[in-house]
Amino acid sequence: MDFEGIVPDWFKSFVDMGNTLLWGDFLIGLLILAGLYFSISSRFVQFRWFKEMFKVITEKAETLPDGRKGIAPFQAFAISAASRVGTGNIAGVATAIVLGGPGAIFWMWMIAFFGAATAFFESTLAQVYKVKDREGGFRGGPAYYMEKGLNQRWLGLFFAVLITITFAFVFNGLQANTIAHAYEEAFNLDRWVVGIVIAAFTAIVIFGGARRIASVAGYIVPVMAVIYLLVVFVILIINYDQIIPMLSAIVTNAFGIREVFGGALGAAILNGFQRGLFSNEAGMGSAPNAAASAAVSHPVKQGLIQALGVFFDTMIVCTATAILILMYTDLSYGADALQGIQVTQAAMTEQIGSFGAIFIAIVILLFAYSSILGNYFYGQSNLNYIRENRVLLLVFKALVVVMVFIGAVMDLETAWATADMFMALMAVTNLVAVFGLSNVVWQVAADYKAQLKMGRNPVFETNNIKADLTEVDEWGENRYAQRGDGRS
């Protein structure tokens, strides 16, 4: 069946124009400015509290009013990792290298290092301004701190609509597209068949509720990441003599010292930033939705955990994939070269034989499917912000399932271009809000540090903060108790 014309030409032209406007010097400059500002103003929190990140991720969730345990810090980390670790880490890295050269990986590292500070700020804010949900847990994110922190509900509504469309529909379509291409390459399966299967399994999970999503993601993400990384690390050990040349190629190409094709310096920066942002999501405003769901004693704890998630995604998973691809002897560069998941499959096949393409197909199924679950969680959280309505939610779930199928059968270039445009719009909107509320994060972080110095397990009290937190309801002495006014 031929589905290549499923997306109209006018939409493709609109997306190309949007990317030209957003992904010029403007967004790249904004991402650099944000990373520098949040890093310097926090005295490089992503480095200074690196050890603390591993301490807080192992903490248990606090008890909710109904006696159940809330979503634990690690589960919230897994939800965000489920969205982060996916297509971007396997297909996205391949596309970045093919279009930007080895140097694109260096710029992915840069956006991850500085982006970790941005992730700390946005996720801390998400915890500060979170609210209770109908399931007895919590939800939050940029829409909530735009309304409660900046007193700009219109901006919160705009962002909520944007992230709902971006993650639940556009990004989920891209994840399904990558799975379908991988199985077409490995097993010669028609993409529409793969799309139906993915859509069916997606429906089974998302109609089970957010807690099931957290549970499924908590199992899938660690297992899939460990298996994939072990295989790549074994390949790296076997080819240890190529490590230094590969690292050299990444650095020299990053600054145009040794270009692999015309215009490689600009292409390296652009593709490194685009694929880096898609992969680690720092500053995009997506991970804060998962951060807000955790039941922790202090907002800074989730800020640190989400910063760690950026490092895990880019420095470990993306780098492992990049090394594998750069060892591929038939690697070609440029817009006309083989791109996406098929490059990674070819590289793995060269290393471990014909099973390589099948192995990558299995891995991308787990990576991308867990991303679909994480993406849906973000969409549902923001849909509830716009309006809580059971019928609307059921329609939304059905549309998500339909979009998973459509994404599986659409062409690769359109899928990536659409994702680039929507994540750029999200990043611009979110960063404006985080800049405006940065003083709140400074004060909350200072409170956390002061309690650590006293040898205490930090517990957040709004009256310890000078910033106006009158709109914050979920913190204080009875932060996880039922309210007497009947609100939930």
UniProtKB/TrEMBL annotation:
The keyword Transport applies. This is Alanine/glycine:cation symporter family protein. The lineage of its organism: Bacteria, Bacillati, Bacillota, Bacilli, Bacillales. It is a multi-pass membrane protein. PANTHER family: AGSS FAMILY TRANSPORTER, SODIUM-ALANINE, AMINO-ACID CARRIER PROTEIN ALST. The keyword Transmembrane helix applies. InterPro entries: Na/Ala_symport. It is found in: Cell membrane. Keywords: Cell membrane, Membrane, Symport, Transmembrane, Transmembrane helix, Transport. Belongs to the alanine or glycine:cation symporter (AGCS) (TC 2.A.25) family. Coiled coil: none annotated. It comes from the Bacteria. Pfam families: Na_Ala_symp. The chain crosses the membrane at residues 20-40, 76-99, 105-129, 154-172, 192-210, 217-240, 246-270, 307-328, 355-379, 391-410, 422-446.
